[in-house]
Amino acid sequence: MALGFQWSRGFHSDDKGDEVAGLDLNLSTTGCNPFFNVSTSDNDLWPRSVLDETRSCKKFKKTPSADESVDVNGSLYGDGSNGSTNSLSSLPRPQFRDHIWTYTQRYLAIEAMEEAALAMMGGEVTETKEEGSGDGMKLVQQLIACAEAVACRDKTHASSLLLELRANALVFGTSFQRVASCFVQGLSDRLALVQPLGTVGVLGPASETMAFTSEKDEALSLVYEICPQIQFGHFVANASILEAFEGESLVHVVDLGMTLGLPHGHQWRSLMHSLANRKGKPPSRLRITVVGNCPERFEAIGEELKQYAGILKLNFKFVVVERSSLETLQAKDFNVEDGEALVINSILQLHCVVKESRGALNSVLQRLHELSPKVFILVEQDSSHNGPFFLGRFMEALHYYSAIFDSLDAMLPKYDTRRAKIEQFFFAEEIKNIVSCEGPARVERHERIDQWRRRMSRAGFQPVPIKMIMQAKQWLKKVQVCEGYTILEEKGSLVLGWQSKPIIAASCWKCSS
């Protein structure tokens, strides 16, 4: 069972505070460590790892962030609707002891609800139930203490904690034990790469190209089939593309990454079927240009799509632009023709271009802007995993993936091997990259939808509101994943969440006039 981490989205830091949002979280979530003595001195309130990080940082503007607020009303994943923005901002910022107390109360409440549910179903509550809540909170405290020890480069203390964590974080345990096992792997990898005290930074592994294995392939396919995240992105993207292509004869899709290299081209099969059967007549030609570093894989998918286009009697052309990085893209790579309606599709891809500075992503977006797309569909994880400090990212990721593993609990039985494959070969890979890597090797740099709005606006794009909330909710009922998933409209974007915890966001853009 996942602990009830709560996020409120009532307000965000301003544009000037973007680059230090992660720092604010880092300070608030580790501000009063139960493993340290509490002192009246301001400096003594912070763990040494935080102080070391902040001393080496330039002056920054501390802005309260919605990411830091914790709902203490006992709900597992609240919707953040209780109280106004002003009332939230006027409250004192919760300290670390408040977080631990809140998590403890929620964990005990959830255990009580489970016991009641078992009693209603005629089940028996075992004697180990009383021990379960204590073990769960001990696991939370050990995880955070280990993260702090790793941040402090205290290898001795971190190693001893990792030994205990490996015994308690079980791959087939509760949802929180399972997510903890992934974070343990990440912490272990990071500890092996840290430099000795007195040096700066982490010895990150060399940046690697995307490697596909049979396990990862299977895990990605299972995520697509079982979890709604990718299907949600495809549904919203295709609806926006069909609207942009209405009445157009020559249509061109530029696909960045082809949804992580998902086999069979599911998104484009659906689009091709819709185009072939649209009112009036189908387009005289559909061209799909895929950008990525796996040309053989993309070509194989392209051959499948060509065969499907033949069945639909659709004039279809498939092109692969091989690039190891989107940063090397040029507008001339796409051979855009006169009279061609072009759209750009990016599903879970652009966050890999985000770096410590804004320059890399902004450069890519500006080159894409030169293509003058009718629409630019952007689907990304809606969470802040790109903060400047390790402890902040760790806490953000722990909240986010706890919700995902909680949803997997509701969708698949405890000992289902499909769930283990999804968790260990897909989500665990993301977690380990966020936790253990730095520099160019850290590519899972997820950001909140508000941050993407600022980035897209700076690159010359303006939002196109997605006005299909009812259709999206009907789609969610149709796919019948399980109860608990929600779809909300937020400032023209659609956000898929689990128990109101944002998971993935879809937005649509066009070139500013």
UniProtKB/TrEMBL annotation:
Region ranges (SAW): 436-510
Which residue numbers does the motif VHIID cover?
251-255
Enumerate the residue ranges of region (PFYRE): 342-433
Annotated stretches, region: Disordered: 62-90
**Which segments does the entry list as coiled coil?**
none
* Entry's transmembrane regions: none
- Which one Pfam family would you cite for this protein? GRAS
UniProt keyword list: Transcription, Transcription regulation
| InterPro entries per UniProt | TF_GRAS
PROSITE patterns in the record: GRAS
Q: Where is this region: Leucine repeat II (LRII)?
A: 300-332
To which protein family does this belong?
Answer: Belongs to the GRAS family.
Query: Which PANTHER family does this one have?
Result: OSJNBA0084A10.13 PROTEIN-RELATED (PTHR31636)
This one is known as: Uncharacterized protein
Task: Write down the species.
Answer: Xanthoceras sorbifolium
